[in-house]
Amino acid sequence: MRKKRILFMSDRIGYFTRELLRGIIDVSKEREWWDVWTSPAVSERQQLEKLVARGGISGVIARGVAADTLVYLRQLGVPVVELRGPAGFVSEEQIGPHADDYAVGQIAASEFQRLGVLSAGYVHWEGVLWSKQRGDAFTESINWGGCEWLRLEPEESTGWTAIEKIADWLESKTKPIGVLGCCDQVGLAVLQACVLINARVPEEVAVIGVDNDVLACDFASPALSSIDLNPIDIGRAAAIHLARRLDLTRVPREEEVRPPYLVARGSSHRVDRYLQIYQSALYWMDQNALRGASVSEVATACGYSRRGLERAFGKHAGTSPGHVLRDIKTQAIIKLLQTQNLPLEKIAAQSGFPDASSLGQFIKRQTGKSPGELRQLDH
């Protein structure tokens, strides 16, 4: 049978979108349901018809695509899972998993209140739905005072223009102030604006971004605190959602999307070095859960010594990095067992084991149950 082909369309290609796509591709590798094509947000109807017909497109996962484009795709008979609907566009048939923007606002407000800042501010991208939703939730959640918004129009939302505008806005604000940027790109611009006005971070201006683009956040000065949205989970959930609509799976439940969480770094907290090591290593372990990496490999990948890694985990996890590695791998394998109907030999290969017997021994040792028993627990 010919493998199906699906299309991923997005109005933006940034960190969040790439991680969404990673989740979608992860599912396609595990299940072998389809090939994935990517495309910018096409709006021309003639182009859409050609793309669907000549490309043999069976379904679409879309982010930030215009409402009339989504409607037209449906008229062409193409199932669509919409990850981020345009403002004012609601269709239960098409809405799929998405980031919890209300939780983003709550997390940032709660953290700034805990830090004891005197005022709060939000830097917003005008005309972007998710930015507005995060800002509204942030403002509603602040119960110690108001929240002032800086609204950046599309033509001034990036680059030097944005930095200067943020600097002018910040200079007159009561300090210490907590500033939430609608995304990491904005959070980084706030840090650069603080340099222009000689504002001390985090003492005078505490900054939190959204997305947790680890490379960009870790190498900022100071490192940018950020709220992680778990975009890989969202991409995986979208893929399962579309697969059900294409009758490729009968799994009734949604793929789990873990809630957003704050990764604290130097832009909002006086973070001790071992906490930064712990957070960085934990993120790497989670992203590489099935690799079967050693503690030394984790240390090398994160740029730390093995001794430093062990001290960080002893302080912040109360256990060894090896123990955490095994726990994370075990949970990832259990998830594969309970959400997929793949044979054990294939799951063993994905998990770095030479055969199904070795996988079974590892799972039995870790959980006290066989792979078959764990599969039964989910039914």
Automatic annotation (TrEMBL):
Domain HTH araC/xylS-type: from-to ranges: 279-377
Family matches, as Pfam families: HTH_18, Peripla_BP_3
Signal peptide range in chain numbering: none
Keyword terms of this UniProt record: DNA-binding, Transcription, Transcription regulation
Superkingdom of origin organism: Bacteria
Keyword Transcription regulation attributed: yes
Transcription keyword on record: yes
Molecular function in Gene Ontology: DNA-binding transcription factor activity; transcription cis-regulatory region binding
Protein name: Substrate-binding domain-containing protein
